Automatic annotation (TrEMBL):
It comes from the Bacteria. This is Response regulator receiver domain-containing protein. InterPro entries: CheY-like_superfamily, Sig_transdc_resp-reg_receiver. GO terms for biological process: phosphorelay signal transduction system. Residues 1-46 form the Response regulatory domain.
Length: 49
C-alpha cells in the first residue's frame, strides 16, 4: 500500500508546485494552509466519500 504524500511549502510559485509534483508527491498546498483545501486534497487520496 502506497502512502499518499502532500507537500507543504511557503512558496507560492507555480514552478515550485510543478517541481514537487514531478518529484512524486500526490498533492501540493502552500502556506498558510486552508482547512477546507487540506480536506479537499486528503479525501480523494484516502478514497473518502
Amino acid at each position: 500500500m502506497a502512502v499518499p504524500i502532500i507537500a507543504v511549502s511557503a512558496s507560492t510559485f507555480s514552478q515550485d508546485e510543478e517541481r514537487y509534483l514531478a518529484s512524486g508527491v500526490n498533492a501540493f498546498l502552500s502556506k498558510p494552509i486552508d482547512h477546507d483545501s487540506l480536506l479537499a486534497k486528503i479525501a480523494p487520496l484516502l478514497q473518502l466519500p
